[in-house]
Design goal:
alpha+beta; Elongation Factor Tu (Ef-tu), domain 3; Threonyl-tRNA Synthetase, Chain A, domain 2; Diaminopimelate Epimerase, Chain A, domain 1; 3 domains; five-stranded mixed beta sheet; about 35% helix; about 30% strand; metal-binding; coiled coil; Ala-tRNA-synth_IIc_N; Alanyl-tRNA editing protein; Ala-tRNA-synth_IIc_core
């Protein structure tokens, strides 16, 4: 059994231990030590990382897994069996995990105490923390939970870790996602939570720092919350602060007025879209009138329009109206010969998809659809595309 030094002191960042075994596995090595401060993956939390040093030689600890009480360190190099080594954790990473995991306990304890919801899922990764609860929470309730959690931080409550006997366990209330065999380890935050947990935690709630719920979505009949605590909460705030500054500069608005500025921009965009829609309708009508002249000279002629820009709805409107005027191929090609064309093609009679496939093959295009209309994109010369459509029948 590996001695779990992180249970003796969760703030231990350096230690010495003996190499009990080292076995190569692929291009990595599996190292077992007499004792370790590296916490293995477990309880929804990823493993600690860091280094192991044997004299002048240093190897990276990439992962740690527990197998029947033995902790196996995955490293990028070998160590000598029987040698004494020094281990050093990436403690900044460890401390952030302890902040976030303790913060999760505080939030989950409050959710259980107030609403009776169980934490049925937990993940503490390198980017985010997520918690799944088996019941819904409103926005107002989430704000209240967040405020109470930060009050727990301000109270700087000492964290208590218990390893009770089976007899003592009968008189202790604690949350647990599963039935636990063997020794049960309970992490208590007096007044807020009592939960079975195998992970290391900070010593007092004050070390958690600010607790911020950053996201909440409906999930499997309950809620999935995203959380940041302490240094990660600070990093999250800085990133969002940078975004708000950049947006406020672009909008020439004060940071606290960004939302109103965005609303005004949305209204302006909506007005421009409506104006553009009317202009596109006029363009379609004018283009149809111009193309109809061909029908007077040649019944059943194709009605094909090439324009630099036209939105998808206007393109379809042109084709729909054009199909009422001719049995030929109707279409719009929007774009340029240099950048390529988006197209919509239709034909009242015939199999328009029989035209689309050879058209795409001839002009390096892609697309498809069902009669009477197809759409896609291609590259080619206007004159050659017109000639191709004149020669091809659907």
């Amino acid at each position: 059994m590996t001695e779990k030094l992180y249970y003796q002191d969760s703030y231990l960042s350096e230690f010495e231990a003996k190499v009990l075994s080292c076995a190569q596995k692929g291009n990595k090595y599996e190292v077992v030590l007499s004792g370790t401060a590296f916490f293995p993956e477990g309880g929804g939390q990823t493993a600690d990382t860091g280094i192991l040093s044997e004299g002048e030689k240093t190897v990276q600890v990439l992962d740690v897994q527990e197998k029947e009480g033995i902790l196996v360190h995955e490293t990028d190099g070998p160590l000598t069996e029987g040698a004494w080594i020094k281990g050093k954790l990436n403690f900044q990473e460890r401390f952030i995990k302890m902040q976030e995991h303790t913060g999760e306990h505080i939030v989950s304890g409050i959710v259980y105490k107030r609403f009776g919801y169980q934490n049925v899922g937990f993940h503490l990764g390198k980017e985010e923390v997520t918690m799944d609860y088996n019941g819904p929470l409103t926005e107002e309730e989430l704000r209240e939970i967040e405020y109470e959690a930060n009050r727990a931080v301000a109270e700087d409550v000492p964290i208590v870790v218990l390893e009770p006997s089976r007899e003592e366990l009968k008189d202790i209330f604690y949350r647990s996602k599963m039935e636990i065999e063997g020794q049960v380890r309970i992490v208590q935050i007096p007044g807020y939570d009592s939960c079975a947990c195998c992970a290391p935690h900070v010593k007092t709630t004050g070390s958690v720092g600010m607790i911020k719920i950053t996201g909440a979505i409906r999930y499997k009949g309950g809620m999935r919350l995203s959380l940041h605590c302490g240094f990660r909460a600070l990093l999250d705030y800085r990133q969002k602060e940078t975004s708000v500054k950049q947006i406020s500069n672009r909008l020439s608005a004060k940071q606290e007025e960004v939302f109103e500025a965005v609303k005004r921009m949305e209204q302006e965009i909506a007005a421009l879209k409506e104006k553009n829609k009317k202009l596109q309708e006029k363009l379609v009508a004018a283009a149809l009138k111009e193309e109809e002249k061909k029908l007077a000279e040649h019944a059943g002629a194709n009605l094909i329009l090439f324009v630099e820009d036209m939105d998808a709805a206007a393109m379809r409107n042109f084709v729909n109206e054009a199909m009422e005027k001719t049995e030929g191929v109707c279409g719009v090609f929007a774009g340029t010969e240099e950048s390529g064309f988006r197209y919509v093609l239709g034909q009242r009679e015939g199999s328009i998809h029989m035209i689309g496939k050879p058209l795409n093959e001839a002009f390096h295009g892609k697309g498809g659809g069902k009669p009477p209309m197809i759409q896609g994109s291609l590259k080619g010369n206007e004159e050659k595309i017109r000639a191709f459509l004149e020669e091809t029948e659907g």
